[in-house]
Amino acid sequence: MSYKRNANANRDALFGGGGSGGASTSGAKKKPAGAARKSTTGPSFNSLETPVPSITSSASTIPTRNVNVNPGRRTNTGTTTTTGVGPSFLSGQAKIDKMKEAEEHRAKAKKALSRTLFSSPDPIAGAMFYHRAAEAYKQCGENRLERLHRIASADCQMGHDGYATAAQEYIRAAELSACSEETLPRKKAECTKLYSDAAKAWTEAGEPGRAGECMLKSGYSMLMMEEEEGDNDMIGGKRLHSIDKDALKAIEAAVEAHVPDPLNRYRQFRQSGISAFVDPDAAATSTSTNTTTTTGEGSSSSPLEEEVSEETLDMCRSHMVKSSHAHETLNKAVQKFIEYGEFKSALYTAGAISTLLEADGFSTISLSRAYCVETILTLAIGDVVAADQWFLQVHLQNNIYLSSRECKLAEDLIRAVKMRDLDDLDTARDHVRGDNRTALSNLDFGLRNVVANLRISGAVRKSKSKVAVAAAVAAAAPSASASASANRAPAPVAAVSSSPPAPTPVSAATAAAPDDNLQDEMDDLMADMGLDDDDDDDDDDDEFDLR
Fold it and tell me: CA torsion, points 481, 486, 492, 496, in degrees to nearest 10?
């Protein structure tokens, strides 16, 4: 039997139509395989009741959806919106039955956690029943009830050292709180607390990477705002309001959870808190030195000026996060800091990113972009000297970085700012026809805005927030009224003088001879400087022949 006859036999066995004569089947149109499968299979929706019988006709068989499943958005009250996109929730009698099942699981969980004369609380069984109740409420679209039971299940998991499962339950509860219809302050408080608990659970489970990510999300939760407010607050990639200090502290602590400060060469740019790997007493004594060397334009601080013991560095390396793509998690923190204009904290986070990439031992395009980001942010804070030093002492020591596009962009920016040449600066950041357009296109949107706002002084133009503008107007109002009153009634000179305190009042006899007083004052000044002996000076000059 030939291969063709075998293929025909297999096709007839699979799809039918293989009988006697080929003449009877050749004229008839074959039925598609998809239609045969569609007619035999039922609805693909999970439900607790029997599907509604489909409406049949001679032309085709049309399967119908279960009327007990409604697609839509979950709300606190269990109502859904029929948008056609999103998860499906039960309704009608199926929802009532599922709610009763959830209540039964809840009662079993309470019974498992109660203490009796012959039994002790069982957190394992309690966590299991609370989880089942949460899954049942999830199918019913009950946001608040699902959230509460997931938190209860996570607490029980923490009781018997089930840290990984507890962390997942906390994260799920935080996500539910973020999309709930609670008030904004309650959302912030719940998400911050739940993500913080998840970070603690991941730390106990030995997952520092996931713990650091949850710490970052806990800090982001403090910056939550309404959707309309968030759209109006963002202009040109920048926020009009300053960052919350608690959120800044939480995010910087999460950055150190990824990379300890002794390994971060930009650790002096941290704006809040003290490193857990540094002696607090030593940090307190060096605070004034760090502030004087890292603030202001033209700082000459060296990247290698602070020495750390080798034992401390070994301990820090053991605590550094080595999971894959950890630098991408920190990159989100850099973008968040740039949105709020916190360039020092962004530079501190960028240093952690480059430390993570350098620890891998491979020179990749991600490391080159991290070095370029460091240069841009250092110029953004107005420290061109430090940017040049780090560029020469650290970045150029990487041979792969020397041949990258990002290295040329960083070098052009540093040269233009050092020479204070506006034309060279515009040429370096030209993203249309410039030589660095490819490197600029690889940067994030926020960083491109930072490069576009650089000036020849190296500092970025900072837009005043609404709060700052209101405070400035309020402060200017009293001064304007004071100046207006001063114009109407001039005050005495002694009252408005900004010079040092006036000398003691002179008598009338002394005021009658101003020339004598002036001469005496000049003599006193000359005596203070050691130039009062004019005769001796003349004698000394006569001893030398100046011809």
Answer: 50
